[in-house]
Write a structure and sequence with these properties.
Chains A, B: This is LacI family DNA-binding transcriptional regulator. The structure is a homodimer. The first copy, chain A, is of the alpha/beta class. Chain A has three domains: about 45 residues, 434 Repressor (Amino-terminal Domain) (Orthogonal Bundle), CATH 1.10.260; about 120 residues, 3-Layer(aba) Sandwich (Rossmann fold), CATH 3.40.50; about 150 residues, Rossmann fold (3-Layer(aba) Sandwich), CATH 3.40.50.2300. The first copy, chain A, is built from 13 helices and 13 strands. A seven-stranded mixed β-sheet of chain A has the order 7-8-6-9-10-11-13, with helices on both faces. Chain A has a six-stranded parallel β-sheet with strand order 2-1-3-4-5-12, with helices on both faces. In chain A, β3, α7 and β4 form a beta-alpha-beta unit. At the A-B interface, α4, α5, β2 and α6 of A face α4, α5, β2 and α6 of B. Chain A binds a DNA duplex through α2 and α4.
DNA sequence: CTGAAAGCGCTTACAG
DNA sequence: CTGAAAGCGCTTACAG
């Protein structure tokens, strides 16, 4: 293995100083064209591979990359359609700024902390549900800008969230308008600890995930205005996988056949619910109305197609990346959702 | 802005040498516990943030990250279900090794070269269709291990591909067995230059993408064995998006109503084909048989569900990452596919 | 187990 | 526009 050719070798061969050679690569305008060419020729001849990335990073302090962390669901992030849309938006904005995207990968929370500490990035984007998390503390210790997505983190350089309360309120109102009167809520996990199935009032009150808290409040607000107490609503906590929510829904509808309105906190969950309800012969939307949350593509292909509260996850990711890259003071952006009407809540007019 | 606390400051405060302080963080076993604690205390007191990542990288030459490059479809990679599965496998293996995943992001090929040069990574994983590419040259100039996925790159440290020939041959054979006799092939792009619609014999012969070349050869081999010449098969080049392939299929079936077998090079393309065929009233599988390629989840929800050649893209990505991280000599892995039988090729027995 | 020293390869003030 | 020098912050032989 030959010794690596470095800038000084090139400079010597070209008969210039190291500084000038550096400029030829990094700031070509500062070097006279003929000298620049001489330097490039020397580089080619010696087999110089261009400035060493890590050395430049150390010197300039810039990593040229944004770190993306999914503390709640590390492996899972690459399966959730919504996370992928987020990543697409992040990737788009990073590409625009000529910055790479570093996905912090780990098998468990402890490893994630190491992974965060080993990542050469200029800022972190954190997608998580809960603000109380060792991984977040590890990031904050690094003292780099942190943009939080979908939850509030104290001291974040920026925050992008949804108006989850309004979205959930509108979702419940829509099912009320469609005539539903006996409700079940299929909730996302309320805390980091796995817990599936019926939610006790205790558990309902203990939701540490901002998204869950806000959406529950929104659903309840609309229902209570229609005279339906939260205690009369069946709450089921689901894993965010259609297979799992299908199982939960089968049990739900066996125990509570009177349910005629299902409020699902994600489309993935809603899709499982529709599958399960159809399998046991429930007619939708006549017999049972379902509304999801997110607006993923797969919702177009359920039977019936899924009515949902649509959010623009791509834009959410893009905005977060933009905040991270702009270096502006920390602000909070709250995005709106819109009702995406399909067949699972009312007969299509088509 | 206070000056950054560095290791030497901590060492002085703890009354040890810089080397010992370094060991306390990086190789704790080499430092006596009581000394170690003294160092950690000093670090805490001074607000030391832990060893500087970039400095360590420069010194050790290890980046602790794997670069992933999609030269053909930079933004598109986060939309294609198959690319996402690949990424999931890569992420899984990287997490296992405590290595982060760096996605090289760029808006155009030129930017991609810069992005490659700015990426602090230990090796590159390249997913591409064609081996002749400026981005690949840029990577090779960096002289780091390069694992190529889905195509052969000369000098790669490793290669992971599918047995595309056998897969396509089996796909065509299956439709023959189901009774199809008039075929159309919906092909992926054959070269990097956009070209959609009917393929001339010229274009067929010029396919620079390995995947397209192999699959065409496989389809043709099976069809020719059944007495069907390649020149009697309609070839259409599609963008890998269901909306686009749907349009192409509508035209195809208008021009060639006799077609009763569609061989699609991806499930995404096949899904569009099924949608289009159903929209104009073609009965599947009775009237028209369709087989896809990949085995993505969305294929379960078409009407009828999509028969396809299933590949394990997650494993493909995982294997590629494993090769990159093992540092073993370059070898080639060829993965098999399997027929995934659903309703688009024959009546289900259910 | 500990300390003193070298050096990873570059970029950037600074002086000309 | 060019050159000489400092230093980014660390880890790792090396000698004890």
């Amino acid at each position: 293995m030959a010794k690596r050719v470095k800038l000084l070798d090139v400079a010597k061969a070209a008969g210039v100083s190291q500084g000038t050679a550096s400029n030829a690569f990094g700031k070509p305008d500062l070097v006279r064209p003929e000298v620049r060419e001489r330097i490039f020729d020397a580089a080619r001849e010696l087999g110089y591979r261009g400035p060493h990335v890590m050395a430049r990073m150390l010197r300039t302090g810039k990593a040229g990359a944004l770190g993306v962390v999914f503390p709640d669901n590390l492996e899972y992030a690459f399966s959730d359609p919504v996370a992928i849309e987020l990543l697409r938006g992040i990737g788009r904005e990073c590409a625009h700024h000529g910055v790479n995207v570093m996905i912090i990968s780990a098998e468990n929370p402890e490893q994630a902390i190491t992974a965060v500490n080993n990542a050469a990035v200029d800022a972190f984007l954190v997608h998580c549900y809960s603000d109380n998390n060792d991984i977040i503390k590890a990031i904050q210790r690094r003292n780099q800008p942190l943009i939080s997505i979908d939850t509030d983190i104290a001291g974040a350089a920026g925050t992008v969230v949804l108006d989850d309360f309004a979205a959930a309120k509108n979702a419940a109102q829509h099912l009320l308008d469609c005539g539903a009167s006996k409700f079940a809520i299929l909730s996302l996990q309320a805390t980091e600890h796995d817990h599936f199935g019926p939610m006790s009032p205790n558990r309902l009150g203990a939701a540490s995930h901002r998204v869950v808290r806000e959406r529950l409040a929104g659903y309840h607000t609309a229902l209570e205005a229609a005279g339906i107490a939260a205690s009369d609503v069946v709450h089921i906590e689901c894993d965010n996988q259609s297979g799992h929510s299908a199982k939960m829904t089968t049990e739900l509808l066996a125990d509570h056949p009177e349910i005629d309105g299902i409020l699902a906190m994600s489309d993935v969950i809603a899709i499982g619910a529709i599958d399960a309800a159809r399998a046991i012969g429930r007619k939708m939307p006549g017999d049972l109305k379902v509304i999801g949350f997110d607006g993923i593509q797969a919702g177009e292909r359920t039977d019936p197609p899924l009515t949902t509260m649509h959010q623009d996850s791509v834009e959410k990711g893009r905005l977060a990346a933009e905040m991270a890259l702009s270096g502006e003071p920390g602000k909070t952006i709250m995005l709106e959702t819109s009702l995406l009407l399909r067949g699972s809540s009312q007969e299509s007019s088509a």
